[in-house]
Amino acid sequence: MKTNKPEHTDFLEATYQKIFPPDSDYREKATARLDQLTMPHWALGDLMDLAVDLAGITRSMTPPVERKQMVVMVGDHGVIAEGVSKFPSEVTAQMVYNFVAGGAGINALARQAGAEVAVVDMGCSVDLSELANAGKIISKKIGPGTSNIAHGSAMTRTHAVMAVEAGIEVANQMAPTVDIFGTGDMGIGNTTPSTAIVATLTGNSIDELTGRGTGLDDEQLAHKKTVLERILQINKPNAKDGMDVLAKVGGFEIGGIAGLIIGTAANRKPVVVDGFISTAGALIACSLEPFVRDYIICAHRSMEPGHGAMQKKIGCRPLLDLNLRLGEGTGAALAMNLVEASVAILTEVATFADAGVSDSESDS
Amino acid sequence: MKTNKPEHTDFLEATYQKIFPPDSDYREKATARLDQLTMPHWALGDLMDLAVDLAGITRSMTPPVERKQMVVMVGDHGVIAEGVSKFPSEVTAQMVYNFVAGGAGINALARQAGAEVAVVDMGCSVDLSELANAGKIISKKIGPGTSNIAHGSAMTRTHAVMAVEAGIEVANQMAPTVDIFGTGDMGIGNTTPSTAIVATLTGNSIDELTGRGTGLDDEQLAHKKTVLERILQINKPNAKDGMDVLAKVGGFEIGGIAGLIIGTAANRKPVVVDGFISTAGALIACSLEPFVRDYIICAHRSMEPGHGAMQKKIGCRPLLDLNLRLGEGTGAALAMNLVEASVAILTEVATFADAGVSDSESDS
Prior knowledge:
- Two copies of one chain form a homodimer.
- By secondary structure, chain A is an alpha/beta fold.
- The first copy, chain A, has two domains: 10-62 and 346-356, Orthogonal Bundle (5,6-Dimethylbenzimidazole Phosphoribosyltransferase, Chain: A, domain 1), CATH 1.10.1610.10; 68-340, Nicotinate-nucleotide-dimethylbenzimidazole phosphoribosyltransferase (CobT), large domain (Rossmann fold).
- Chain A is built from 17 helices and six strands.
- Chain A has helices at residues 10-17, 24-35, 45-58, 90-101, 105-113, 129-133, 157-174, 191-202, 206-209, 218-235, 242-249, 252-266, 276-288, 307-314, 330-348, 352-355, 360-363, and strands at 68-75, 115-123, 138-139, 180-186, 271-273, 296-298.
- A six-stranded parallel β-sheet of chain A has the order 3-2-1-4-5-6, with helices on both faces.
- In chain A, α2 runs antiparallel to α3, α3 crosses α15 (330-348) and α11 (242-249) packs antiparallel against α13.
- Chains A and B meet through α3, α4, α5 and α15 of A and α3, α4, α5 and α15 of B.
């Protein structure tokens, strides 16, 4: 019986029950093969670690990663009224149209990586039913944006559960034709709820965690910190209860990301987690079901100062560090190539015995 | 009239004369477009910097990077007699056969990145003419490995010039059908000459630069440092004269890499420089003709401790940091995806005006 989740539904509970640690036999078999590759020991470093992880996650010596699916979760944020972002809320919906037209950063980088892009309306402030009816986006809308968390909860606990369940449903629906998922987000103002989530779940201070989001100046940054302190004081999210944190200071798209990660783990597939907002979703997911962390691949270290603290909490070293701060899943799309490369190392490189190459041990 | 290059040939001189700084107009045009993309300002960080570099190098707003060519330069090293490597010299030739069979790390990672692999025998200790005659490798052999640099020069000055010229010839021959080159190396023992090159050209000490290569233990590492101190004392390479450094403490494959980089720059194409050995070649290239540095993309930060000092000297921030220490061009192959991604950002992402998205400036 799980504690701290008084509202957990049959669906959530059944999903959690499907999540086990990765298979240690496959991890060992992969390690044994990698030890014998025609190269100095573990000479491809982090990509060999990743190959072991992928073998354990997928229970396979040839981890399938060909069918890559980026999922961009979309939501708006009432806290934008506090002046915490340089961009107006309308941009969230405008960017959804940009995604659908294929003109955004995530479209370009997903194409490069051979990944598909799906957009999920979790809580955009604009009515996107036209796009949803045309099959161009997926609608899982919980509401037209969160309430202003500087004055109270972002959403009800019921809505938080619905958001996580919606993310799981997306993963379940896509899983039969997807090998690996990548998370993405779009929501003007969403570094503020994400920072509140990280502060709550890592214990780090607002001062050290808060960054410039889409480009705040010094004065705007100081204001954002003041707003964040107020958000935590007013809402008092319970660090022991991820659903409480999501409901009080989260966002609909952040709940969707948490659900997508949980659903991916339940389907025993790897999920590449993008930047600051996605990692906030991952922290919620790990709080709800700690076993999911072994299914998470951290794509990159973003420029937001709180990102390192989040990744440390999850226990995951990011693959890339390129001063990215876009979101949308762009870092995750970039990392897909490294995931594919790590599988190529495991499956395509010859062993010393195969290639007739002298091992250092056998010749010294 | 160039000084410190008394031996420079007509061919070398003509090549140097073709190398100019990248085009500042194209850099400005690329920057102007990137400033207008539908994302917060410069939100894709280092990849946007790279896109500007590529526009300037290729004199194009759509930098061609589709035809990717890895060139693995091969050479053996007399200094292996001093016990500075865990692997025997025979492994160099064995690995060439592994490259030709497609079973090495570089083969797997080049395939993933959509890059071709060419192997050039610059100075393998084994006769590889069978492979060369069959068209499976390119022969530019200067000699069957360098002399032991713990006792004297690696090669004559004439041979050093021939090695650099051979690399330029490879670049020139391939350039009509290649958009971007990647460097690679294979040569058991070659971290030792590379460290000697870096110590000479950066002024850093042997102690701080020397690493474990393919996996030395503490005692072997201390021995390698002693050997390296002796190498520098005996040879006294002239830091103002890259050709002297190459001749005295270099390697045939390192000269080939330097030439490939110079030849690539002369053909106004970008070159992705791999790890420790390739970067030693790049330092030689920059010493011979400083303008080449603007054509260099540093692929990754290797585990060898001297690598950071080398990249600082070249003035290039590496794209990846994955604890790689293999060489062969593996890091450069991995970085090819990021190069392609940076071009996708420049060429495929919509501007605010194109997409009808509100810019922060125009709405604030």
